[in-house]
Amino acid sequence: MIIPINFASSSNSDARLPPQLARIGTDEVVLIELQGALQVEGDRAGQQVGKLHFANDDEKPTLTIGHHLLEGKVVKLPKPLAVLYKRQASTPGALDDPSREDSGSDVGYDVVGVVKRKLIFSKRPIPIVSTPSVSSAVNGGESGGNASGNAKASLKWQR
Amino acid sequence: MTDIDLHFPQRNNSSTGCYCLLELPPELFAVMQDGTESNLTVKGRATDDAVLCTSEKTYNIRSVTLSNAFCVLTSPEGEESGQTVIRDSIQEIYELVPSISKLHRIDGILKDCEYDEGLEDDDDYRNDRPNKRARYTYSDIKMDVQASDCELDRGLREKHVLVVNGELRPISPSYLTTVLELLLTTLVSLSQSPDAASAVDLADALENDHEIRRDISMQVMSWFGELSSEAVKSAMKWKADIEAIVRQVGLGILRAHSEPLSQDELLKKWSDAVGDTFETKVSMAHLLGNYLSEPSASTASHRITYFPSSRLPLSPAERLSDLFLTRSRWKADDIAPFLADIAVDNKDRDKMLMKYARSTTDATGVTWYTAKGGVVS
Q1: Are B102 and B51 in contact (CB under 8 A)?
Q2: How far B142 CA lies from chain A's nearest CA (Å)?
Q3: Which residues does residue B261 pair with via DSSP β-bridges, in sequence order?
Q4: How far is A88 from chain B (nearest CA, A)?
Q5: ipTM exceeding 0.90?
Q6: Chain A contact for B49, CB < 8 A?
Q7: Are B89 and B145 in contact (CB under 8 A)?
Q8: What share of chain A is helix, strand, coil (3-state, %, to 5)?
Q9: Beta bridge partners of residue B262, listed in sequence order
Q10: What is the mean pLDDT of residues A98-111?
């Protein structure tokens, strides 16, 4: 069995990450490391998770999730990481790659990007009272009928 | 100052589990960056441990679980809101560890496909025993063997696998020795220079005088030397690798003797086989890793036993255990040839020895290896 790993050509050049993020990863993809895991209550589809804030110097980004503020930093990875996307026959249109028929295999990986740096949030979250922009999404779930949906993202922090 | 919204994708779980992270060793990263490498594949049977093959190298893929989570962020697609979307959260990365290619499987697959002298008339053979033997082509092997293309091609060459009518057929060792001896004598009888012999003349001579098929002798020549790629076939020159031929002939003689034979006798037979012209190339060094040498009680000459490393187990633990069963202690120089084919390099070999053997240095400064207390496991 041979599973090909394709070097995806820049598929949709118009949809690029904001420059602050592209500077950390690539135009297509960026990695954020969280010490802990995201917990979501309710339907998460399309919901806002939080907000990344970049100060002018770019070096101390912060992340607000629910009532928590995380301070992060940009770290060089010990070894570059290739971000691969698994493409199966059941997910058509992931990439209109003509070589797909040639390979004769229904599973393959595309290299989305090769990332040399990551954004890491490893410090203990700081509780905050309110951040207006995020609270609407978070409170929406509690009030029930809000148009912004009913999901609630929070961070489960682990030491 | 910039704020960037993070969102979940519009469709639930549309991409969860689809992303994975692969840690790139520096040398692989370098070739990926300068664009010389664009042929990465994951290879193996469903039950194998997966390996990643570049066009030249093979890596074992090892999964490492992380306590932290990596969020994969990309730009939104279509209807999705926000500036970035969390596509996946990953708690595992794949590490790549350089590995020797797993070419040994070729032997197993092609075990019953050997090409021998008596079977040259392939059509008869086919009529007599239809469907008796499974047939394998190059692409069959490529699917099954966990090795990069370069390593696979080299492996097929080293294992002396012929391509006969599109099928892979390993040449039988005795037949190979015959063809090589004939090539050497024909080189001399036609007074051709070993550096630039006419390949066509040689193949003609072998076909007419010894009934050796042209395509067979051509392939054998390509294994033991270089065939120049000329536009006109008749002008094709063969630069013979005399040392490799002499070595192979020596191996053939050694292999034919299941009983130990004295070193002098072996060298004499060997010299006779390669002829006067190439006699000087004969040396026991060519056969390292294929024989055991014991001092003989009756004569001054050492007794040589055929003991090929290719027949030993592949896992380091088992191989060293086997070696120490054969001999309870080994000189460092003696054991090294028997580990060469399973170690990536000398450093890797020394690591194996350190792990599975005990070393002692005697008064004369010779390093000896012995089994590490009890059973090596």
Answers
A1: yes
A2: 8
A3: B304
A4: 9
A5: no
A6: no
A7: no
A8: 15, 45, 45
A9: B303
A10: 60
Strand order in the sheet with B197-198: B197-198, B237-240, B225-227
**Tokens of residue B268, six digits:** 């004499």
Query: Quick check: B30 contacting A, CB < 8 Å?
Result: no
Topology, domain B312-377: Arc Repressor Mutant, subunit A (1.10.10)
Residue with the two structure tokens 């094709």: B236
Using only C-alpha atoms, chain A has a radius of gyration, in whole angstroms, of 19
Report DSSP letters for B66-94, one per residue: EEEEEEEEE---TT--SSEEEEEEEEEEE
CA nearest neighbour of B32 among A79, A104, A95 = A79
With an 8 Å Cβ cutoff, is B52 touching chain A?
yes
Domain boundaries, chain B: 5-99, 107-242, 312-377
B5-99 topology per CATH: Lipocalin (2.40.128)
Q: Do B7 and A109 touch (CB under 8 A)?
A: no
Residue B119: DSSP 8-state: G
Cβ–Cβ pairs < 8 A, chains A and B: 174
* Residue among B146, B117, B143, B155 at smallest CA distance from B310: B155
- Distance CA(B229)–CA(A10), nearest Å, equals 39
pLDDT, greater one: B234 or B292:
B292
Contacting residues of A for B86, CB less than 8 Å apart: 38, 49
Q: pLDDT tens across B228-282, in order?
A: 877 677 778 899 899 899 999 999 998 888 788 888 889 999 998 888 888 888 9
